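Ticket #322: bound-state structure for flavin mononucleotide.
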Amino acid sequence: MSGKKGRGGGPDLRVDIGGGLSIRNPIMTASGTFGYGDEFADFIDLGQLGAVVVKSISLAPRPGNQPPRLQETPAGMINSIGIMSVGVDAFIRDKLPPLRKRGVPVVASVFGTSVKEFVEVTRRLDDAEGIAALEVNVGCPNIEKGTIFGTDRGLTTKTMRGVRRATRLPVILKLTPSVADVRPFAKLGEDEGADAISLINSIPALSIDIRTRRSRIHTGVGGLSGPAIRPIAVRMVWEAARTVSIPVIGIGGIATAEDVMEFLIAGATAVQVGTINFVRPRAAIEILEGLRVLLLEQGVRKMSEIVGTLRGMPAERGGVKG
Ligand SMILES: Cc1cc2nc3c(=O)[nH]c(=O)nc-3n(C[C@H](O)[C@H](O)[C@H](O)COP(=O)(O)O)c2cc1C
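RESOLUTION: The complex was predicted; output attached.
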């Protein structure tokens, strides 16, 4: 597929996700649901995706949480993987080179248990070759203290500021849904120099085994993801997109091209496909193909004709009248 025009003269799917980063289509994969990317190369041509976001990377290797770490729920699942990471140096040495060869923009997700760790991981990734952008994960709900970052405006500001100073790469701030109002967090991201906002991370949730009267997840509370969270994610994306002028990337329960359209109409410039990758490893590509067809059907020739075109929302909440 050539850069400007879509295949067979179809819609031009190219989008600009901030910081000068233009990707060939709006379909990205979500952190933690696509390994370090290369694992999926047997299933799909990674080069067709907009971008791959890798599992969050910590400074030192981390084993992640103890099992059980996954539990199916109606229309979703609860996970408590924790940040299971090879560590930043092993990522750069072992994981990045094979992925770089696949011809897909690599977004490295940064995680830390302190602002200092966020900054140090960022610095090391900034020195590596072949990373297109960084995503700052201040919202992982499963690590003790990790919760604090994304729910505390002061800490999120400090983290974003530190990361911004440590890199010239485009920075995406990934927000947690565990706040009463996501808008001030989106705004502080923009004010502190984020090039884009992505949301949402998983939602804290509890599933109980009534016989043992224990949580089905070792750490107790885990993060809910999958179709169950999609309407919440669409609402939050809409709120964030009305608040900032940088691109917003929508995440949460996407399983079909129709789901992607909802996020785009709500104001997302691009999306990330998460939990569905576990169910259908080819999902991201199938969704991309479906999106091309849907856009063609609706007469959309370029992405700006669909992004943020929600109609009929009450004006006081910032909706477009229509
Ligand atoms: C098993 C699993 C592991 C995840 N690990 C991470 C992670 O390391 N970093 C991160 O920012 N988000 C992580 N997430 C959150 C996803 O990237 C995404 O924000 C969330 O699952 C909502 O999207 P979905 O419903 O499409 O999965 C993880 C999600 C799942 C299900």
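RESOLUTION NOTES: The two ends are 36 Å apart (CA to CA).
TICKET STATUS: resolved
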